[in-house]
Amino acid sequence: MIGDRTGAVHVGAGQTMDLERPKIDLPFNVHVYPGGNLGLAPDTYVQDVEIFLNGTLAHVQNLTLHRDGNLWLYQEGRTEGLEAGNYNFQFVHVKTGGYIHMITDPVTDHGINFETISTHIDGGGLIRGTHLFFRSTNITIDAGGSLNADFLGYRPTDIDTSTWGKYGQINPGLGYTGTLSASGGCHGGSGGRGEGKRHLSSLHIFVKFPGIISV
Question: What is the pTM of this model?
Answer without folding.
Answer: 0.81
